UniProtKB/TrEMBL annotation:
The keyword GTP-binding does not apply. It comes from Sphingomonas populi. GO terms for biological process: translation. HAMAP family: Ribosomal_bS20. PANTHER family: 30S RIBOSOMAL PROTEIN S20, SMALL RIBOSOMAL SUBUNIT PROTEIN BS20C. This is Small ribosomal subunit protein bS20. It comes from the Bacteria.
Amino acid sequence: MANTPQAKKRIRRNANRALVNGNRVGRIRTFVKRAEAALASGDKTAATEAMAQVQPELARGVSKGVMHKNTASRKFSRLTKRLAALA
């Protein structure tokens, strides 16, 4: 267990950051799932709108440090490929 005041503060801080980062990751997952559902339905306009919302969320996750750049790029690339296949 932490004994120094700084170590105790770090424990509190890490717990708060874990909550915030967990919410960020959950938000990203929600937008990705919406895009996947729109792609699965075959509705190109809904899928295009969903993709327009997914891209900034993935970029925000990268900038905030909750997701690796290559992971976000891979997810967006695969979704974009599925969107192009709808045409």
